[in-house]
Amino acid sequence: MAARIDPRTKIVLVLCLTSMVLVVENLAFVVGIGIISIVCALLLGVEVLMLIKRYRRILILILTLSIVQSVFTPDTEVLFEILGIPLLTAKGIAMGVKTFVRMLVILTSGIIMSTSNYRETIQGLIQWKVPYKIAFMTALSLRFIPIFTEEFQDSMVALQLKGVDFTKVPFGKKTQIYVYLITPIILSSLKHAEEIAIAMESRAFGAYPNRVEYLVLKLKGYDYGVMIAAFLLSIIYVWAALII
Amino acid sequence: MESYIKLAGITYAYPRSRFALKNIDLSLNRGEITGITGENGSGKTTLGKIIMGILKPDSGSIEIDGVDGKALKLCERGGKIGYAFQNPDRQLFAASVQDEITFPLEIKGLDKKIAQEKAAVLLKRFELNHLKDRVPMRLSRGEKQRLVLAATLAQEPGFLILDEPATGLDRDRKKALYQLMEELAGEGIGLAVISHDLQFIKDHANRIIKLENGEVVDDGC
Questions:
Q1: Among A32, B37, B131, B133, which has the minimal tally of Cβ within 10 Å of its Cβ?
Q2: Which among A150, A156, A164 is the top mutation candidate for probing chain B, defined by the most B β-carbons within 10 Å of its own β-carbon?
């Protein structure tokens, strides 16, 4: 059933998860939402290995941000200090953990959305009356992320093959290198955009105000069930977190 | 002839693909034009990328100019072997043709004036002098290929790998490319020309290596 869940149901689910994690302030409840989001991802067919792989890529960044958040949050209950300067406080650690979990939930939401084919997700948005031109633009930008990532990696390789050692470049010239790296990517994106525009116009994209769709999504009973349950449980959860 | 690149027992398989390079043993020499040919998907470009260090082999060893390939960083291999991609757009970074040749030299610490003098010689050799202030991306495919070669030679490599260099070139440009290849080989630079154009390889290479399904099936040493 997980694979057949409508992308709109997943959108509602991730909206509930991300809204809850931003509204709730109670640490235990925030951690609870983190656990719920991981359980949701697993129930929706995300493999544990894939989840770990995705987390691993960004874990250092999240951890760094959480530590920075923790260090710069003042509190009277100091846990660790150097020369009288408080570095870790009880409130700081709580803030760090909350930041960590919040970002983890946002990342997990992205992973949950990636379990649907992006074309279906866009179709879901169109059926929710999002103008198809905007929906199509969103689809294109998603489609091009891996291509630009690949092009950036290729540019890095090509620049190194010119004998440029990134580790030995003086600091002043580092920005110059980034200009050289980014220039071909910008030019190639403009080229891609031009080619796509020609291809789309040659297929009469945008010629008529309305479109008929080959792919039409239909919400099933369990979709409504999951949506209603997610919505009601979110309200109860937030209410419980506020009164405790 | 002096052997510059030695490959021993190289195997490589792409993840989630049935294609694999199997047990490649080769020695590529300086001052020689080696044609690497084969059908689409036979492993020509993969082999070139493995030599360059862009792809890491699953097993086997590579020796470049007497140095173990594992000890060479990508940038160090780039200083020893020049590589011209199939698509020249991938190797163009600068805002002007002249800058395309000079900027890596300057980043590496070469004096700006010396870098410009070096660029002037190469621009003249590759008939790009009149285009030196143009934006590289706006050049024709043939001009881009010449510029990539000029920029690659500015690194003074001992060996050049050209991936499908004749693609999109007219007869006169192909002839000019061949002349250039001969000149470079005469200067002691080794060349490996990757091409599915067997005729081009037959006409111009001193040695032909044929790949089939990731294996060397013919090495006309």
A1: B133
A2: A164
Nearest chain B residue (CA) to A171: B107
Mean pLDDT of chain B: 90
Chain B residues touching chain A at CB-CB below 8 Å: 52, 54, 73-79, 82-83, 85, 89-95, 103-104, 107-108, 137, 151-152, 155
Map out the domains of chain A as residue ranges.
1-116+219-244, 121-213
pLDDT digits (tens, 9 = 90+) for A60-73: 877 787 777 777 77
A-chain CB neighbours of B151 within 8 Å are 162
Q: Would you state the structure tokens that stand for residue A45, as one six-digit string? A: 């067919």
Domain ranges of chain B: 1-65+158-221, 87-157
Q: Are strands B20-29 and A78-82 parallel, antiparallel or unpaired?
A: unpaired
pTM over 0.80: no
Q: Evaluate if residue A32 carries a pLDDT over 60.
A: yes
Q: What is the pLDDT of residue A226?
A: 93
Contact A158 B93 (CB under 8 A): yes
Measure A203 CA to nearest chain B CA, in Å: 27
Q: What would the pLDDT profile of A150-190 be if each residue is shown by its tens digit?
A: 888 888 888 888 888 888 877 777 788 888 888 888 888 88
Q: Please tell me if residue A186 touches chain B, with a CB cutoff of 8 Å.
A: no
| Closest CA–CA distance from residue A46 to any residue of chain B (Å) | 19
More confident residue, A229 or A86: A229
The class (CATH top level) of B1-65+158-221 is alpha beta
ipTM: 0.85
To the nearest whole Å, the CA of B136 is away from the closest chain A CA by 10
How do residues A4-24 score in pLDDT, each as one tens digit? 889 999 999 999 999 999 999
